[in-house]
Structures are given as C-alpha cells and as structure tokens.
Amino acid sequence: MVYSDKVVEHYNHPRNVGSLDKSSADVGTGVVGAPECGDVMKLQIQVKDGVIVDAKFKTFGCGSAIASSSLATEWLKGRTIEDAEKIRNVDIVEELALPPVKIHCSVLAEDAIRSALEDWRRKQDSNPS
Amino acid sequence: MSDSRAVYLDHQATTPVDPRVLEAMLPFFKERFGNAASRSHAFGWTAEKAVDAARARIAAGIGADEREIVFTSGATESNNLAILGAARMYKDKGRHLITCATEHKAVLDPMKYLEHEGWEVTVMGVDAKGHLDLEALAAAIRPDTVLVSIMHGNNEIGTLHPVAAIGALCKSRGVLFHTDATQSLGKEEIDVETMGIDLLSASAHKIYGPKGVGILYVRRRNPRVRLEPLMHGGGHERGLRSGTLNVPGIVGFARAAELCLENRAAEQAAIGALRDRMQARFLKDLTHVHVNGDPQSRLACNLNVSFEFVEGEALLMGIDGVAVSSGSACTSASLEPSYVLRALGVGDELAHSSIRFSLGRFTTADEVDYAAGRTVEAVKRLREMSPLYEMALEGVDLKTVQWTGH
Q: Closest Cα of chain B to A111: distance in Å?
C-alpha cells in the first residue's frame, strides 16, 4: 500500500487523540465499526452554544482509518452543529487522496461524526437546559 | 519515525539469492547458454550435463532418485501438476481428494478447481496450533480417495505437520501422498523414503536460489506415480513438463539446496535462536501478545504474533523500513483477514492484528533487536490511540460490546 503524504502526516502526527468525559452532558460520543472488521473509531465532540469547541478520537484501524478520523476531528473543531452535519466522506477521500480500497475508512469517519452528533442531540433532548 | 533503516524479515515470502548461488548460475547465462535439449552439439551437451548434475544433487538432498525430479517454474506449478495431474490420471480409481484448511492457495485452488470438474474434496480442519487430527484424517480416507495433500511447514504460522506419520497412514491405505515442502526444504530434514512421500513440491527462491524454478518429486517405485501433464509440447522432463529447461535457474536451485544442506542444523539453530530472542522481547516489553501457531513444532525462521488492539497494516506503517507480512485484511487483495489464522480459530480481530516475521540466513542479532524495538514502540503508540485498548483497560469485555459492523 502506498500512502499519500497527507495520510502519512496524519498517521505520524495524529491530531486530537484522546478522550472526553462521555458522561458529560455537553459531550457526544460515537463508536462505530467492529474489531472483527479491522476498524473501530471512537469520535467525541464537546459542544458549547451550538459550536463544537473540542473533538477527540481514538481509532483501531489502518493508517487511512487513523488519518480519516484525525482529519475529522480537525474539521469538527470550531464548527457549528449544522456545519458539522455537512461533512461528507467524499470530502475526506479528496483531502487525503484515499485510494478506492480505502474509501470505507472515510465512510466510517462520516458515520462516527453522525453517531457523535446523534449522541449529543439525544443528551440535549433528555436534559433540556 | 525519521529513522527507517531497511531490515528484511520476510524470508518466507522470498529470499535474496546467495552470492555463491549467483556465481554458479552466471556461466549459464553467458558462455554456457545452450539448450539442454539440443543433442547435436557441445552447447547442448554442456547444458544437459549441468542439469543432470543439478538433478542428482537435489534428489540426493531428499533421498530420491534423480529420475524422480521434474523441474518446473516454481512451487505453484509443482502443486498444480501434482494435484491436477494425479487426480486426472487416477480418475477411474475415484474422485475424492483430501487436503487441509491451512494449505497454501496453490494447493487449495487447484482442489477447488477440481471440485467444479466433479471431484469431491475433504478439507481437514486444524486445532489452535495448526495441527490436524491424524485419526480424523484416517477416518476421512475412503476407497475412492486418490490423493492426500498436506504441507510440511506452514507459510504463515510455521507449524510443522508430522509428514512421516501422514505418509505411513497414506501408504497403509493405498492413497497417494503429496506434500508441499516449499517452506521446509533445506530447513527441515526431508527423506521421501522414510517419510512415505509420493509427490513433493518445492521452490528455489525460498532457499536463496532464483525465482522462477521449482521441483516436483514424483515417486517411481512403490508405487510408481503417474501424472497427466499440464504442459504439452516438446516432451521434456519425461513428458511430464514440456518447455525448455531453465538451465541457470536449475543450476542455481541445486547450488542453493546444497548450501542449505551443508550447514542445515547449525543454520536453523542460529535462526531459531534469533527468532526466540525476538519473541522473548515482545513478551517481555508488551502485554496482550499472542504467538500464533505451535511454539514447539514450528519452522525456526517463523514468528507469527498478534498484538492485540492494534491493526496490522497500521503497525506495518509504524515500522516502515522493516519488511514483514501481516494477516490483516487491509494488506490482502481479498480484504479478508488471514484464512490460516481463521482456521486456527484465532478470531478475526486477532487476525487483523497479526504480523509474520520470518528470519533468514543473513539476519543479524542487531537487525532483530532493531526491528523488535521499532515494533514495540509502534505497538505502544498505536495502543495509546486505540479505543479497544482503552476499553480493555477500563475492564470492558470487548466480546460483550454491540458493534456496528459495516
């Protein structure tokens, strides 16, 4: 597998690796994938006044999966919830120059973003402030 | 990561040509370029003489007669010739074949091909160490069984099958026994007589010889094995394999085999000691390390390890410069994790986390230490960013988690 420079860069210097407090009301957590499929992504967002103020990830997967989730957290920080929903896997494919065989990594990253947003929204519905 | 020294630890994929082998081959590209089938001049006679000498040397190394060695393009062709050739020749005896789940694709795929042509194939399962059950094998043999094909040393996990016991069983039941010895020739002792082997495949490039040349040993007596050829043409190799002989390759194969046999026990002991050193380092420096295969009955060069919570391809990326293989789906064309590890019941998540290190003649202790150090460092770094490792540390049983497969 030959990787694009951007994938290698994210792999070597992943942005925003870590965890946020998943029990916190302003944190949304998405965990997607499965170990037997070879990739699991955990993506978390912290939201204040409709804006994502922090994003963290942890990924079990190949270099392209790590780069996709690293890039996703980079893009999420500072975005409004509405703008975060607009991130599409094709944008990740383009930015990282992922080959066809690695497109599923970008799909997983998009799924992780959606799942984190959903989790956050669920918390807002059940704990109206 | 700026530091990326090249270390080759993928000797079960292929080996460098030993300089002494290359030296033996060179005249046959230059002044001794003749066609071994040219009977009318000295160029041909010289080539034929060299091929005969090579044949005798290789035969002696496995306890065979020189007339029992057929030169091919490699072990894939040898396996195809053995399996397709025997099945078609003996189709009137029966149409049942037996093999094992951990065989190389060059054995499994010809078997599958024959299934489409109406043969029935029994694929023996293996235990957690990669061994098949000999009693189950005995029970699988039927009156219409033509051939049993079980490899000697496994290419992924290194597990050694008890070839002599399988040979004796096949002999007692009147069934032909083929073994793919591609990974074991020159490394393990092989004697086709005492081991009851009827057909044996091997390749030069796994033993510091050139690519593109292999052998098939075909027993001539007790019983005389007959095969239907795959290649038709000039009738070379007693009609079993038409095609101009690869004279430099054959000369190289013989020299490579000779060098392996000269020093076999000592060389394998040295390689095994380095392998053990590497394995010990992983077990000392890391937790959640699983050695795949049989730690005892294993090729000395092989170390197949799963580093739990870390994906294999990501790990390969982290040890760039160190050449190894992974059982991860991401590194295979099929996008499936290793079927060999699956057959052992290793579990897909650990198969995705597996790395095969295979050491060779020129591997040094320094290289092993460097590669092990890089690996340990990369595993630790990747675990820091692995959600699975985090969950395991929190005491979550990963088997109880509802995953969203995709």
A: 10
Between residues A41 and B330, the one the model is more confident about: A41
* DSSP characters over B315-344: HHHHTTTEE-EE--GGGSTTS---HHHHHT
- Chain A residues touching residue B384 (CB < 8 angstroms): 17
Element (H, E) at B358: strand B354-358
Q: How many CB atoms lie within 10 A of CB B28?
A: 22
Q: Which one is catalytic: B170, B260, B301, B330?
A: B330
Kindly indicate whether the ipTM for this predicted assembly is greater than 0.90, answering yes or no: yes
Which tens digit of pLDDT belongs to each residue from B83-133?
Answer: 999 999 999 999 999 999 999 999 999 999 999 999 999 999 999 999 999
C-alpha–C-alpha distance, residues A66 and B310, integer Å? 11
The mean pLDDT value of chain B amounts to 95
Residue B392: φ, ψ to 5°: -65, -40
Tokens representing residue B390 in the block: 């985090």
Question: Above 60 in pLDDT, residue B2?
Answer: no
Output the six-digit token pair for A76: 């999420």
Output phi, psi for B276, to 5 deg.
-65, -35
- B58 burial (CB, 10 Å; 0-12 / 13-18 / 19+) is buried
Distance set, CA A69 to CA A64, B169, B286 (Å): 9, 55, 26
Phi, psi of B146 (to 5 degrees): -100, -40
- For residue A80, the 8-state DSSP code is B
Confidence of residue B398 (pLDDT cuts 50, 70, 90): confident
B209–chain A nearest CA distance, Å: 27
Question: Are A34 and B406 contacting, i.e. CB atoms less than 8 angstroms apart?
Answer: yes
Burial of B239 (0-12, 13-18, 19+ CB in 10 A): middle
Give residue B361's identity as a one-letter amino acid code.
R
Q: Are B70 and B40 in contact (CB under 8 A)?
A: no
CB contact under 8 A, A3 and B317: yes
A9-22 mean pLDDT: 96
Has residue B145 got a pLDDT over 70?
yes
Query: E strands of B116-233, at which residues?
Result: 120-124, 145-149, 176-180, 199-203, 214-218
**Beta-sheet strands, E only, within A1-129:** 27-34, 39-48, 51-60
Instruction: Average the pLDDT over B300-324 and give the result.
Output: 96
* Predicted pLDDT of residue A2: 79
Mean pLDDT value across residues A68-91: 96
